[in-house]
Amino acid sequence: MGVKYFFSDKTDGNLAYHVGDIKENVDKNRQKLALKYDYKNEDLCYMNQIHSANVVVVDENSPKYIDNCDALVTNKKNLPLMVMVADCIPILMFDEVKGVIAAIHAGRNSTFLKISEATSKKMIEDFSCKTENIKVIMGPSIQKCCYEVNDELKNIVEKSFGKEFVFGNNIDLQGINKKLLENLGIKNIDISSICTKCSNKPFFSYRKEKNTGRFAGVITFK
């Protein structure tokens, strides 16, 4: 059947256990999501995301909760991978030729640490994926229209990635990740135009609401 992926929204409820929600509510939301998108909730692999560049390869024998990482990669069928966000970029990658998928949490720190590049290299080096076969989907996230940072962070972007990703005190994380991937030779990149902060679309946004839930990007190979 190939690769299946989606991004949830507020109508699917909060999917994170670490934001003060009642565990039973999160359990129900995750189960409903699995039924909605036709995968087994007990097979779902997700992360304790720490804003790092740590990439972990998982298989059917791995724990379902992977600690201390921000990207998951697998070549196993029916092993859904989930990334949770509320402004950070949920990046899903796949190579249908090799049957390899990845889920990435690309917030500011992870982007600065080049996590999308690290994940791509893991797919290439560990699974012999070819750049021309890797497809990338960046889901709804805070965009350059709203992502304002201080002068120190703005200067980091200018020096490390280029002035083209700085707009006043706003920065373009999607553009940085796109450049990192294109530098590897990956060209098939789709970027959502939805800004989680200002679009009024039903997505959780930490910058807009502070005390908020998390939506998810989920990918599986069937």
TrEMBL record:
<keyword id="KW-0378">Hydrolase</keyword>
<dbReference type="Pfam" id="PF02578">
    <property type="entry name" value="Cu-oxidase_4"/>
</dbReference>
<dbReference type="InterPro" id="IPR038371">
    <property type="entry name" value="Cu_polyphenol_OxRdtase_sf"/>
</dbReference>
<keyword id="KW-0808">Transferase</keyword>
<dbReference type="InterPro" id="IPR011324">
    <property type="entry name" value="Cytotoxic_necrot_fac-like_cat"/>
</dbReference>
<keyword id="KW-0479">Metal-binding</keyword>
<comment type="similarity">
    <text>Belongs to the purine nucleoside phosphorylase YfiH/LACC1 family.</text>
</comment>
<dbReference type="GO" id="GO:0017061">
    <property type="term" value="F:S-methyl-5-thioadenosine phosphorylase activity"/>
</dbReference>
<dbReference type="GO" id="GO:0016787">
    <property type="term" value="F:hydrolase activity"/>
</dbReference>
<dbReference type="GO" id="GO:0005507">
    <property type="term" value="F:copper ion binding"/>
</dbReference>
<dbReference type="InterPro" id="IPR003730">
    <property type="entry name" value="Cu_polyphenol_OxRdtase"/>
</dbReference>
<keyword id="KW-0862">Zinc</keyword>
<protein>
    <recommendedName>
        <fullName>Purine nucleoside phosphorylase</fullName>
    </recommendedName>
</protein>
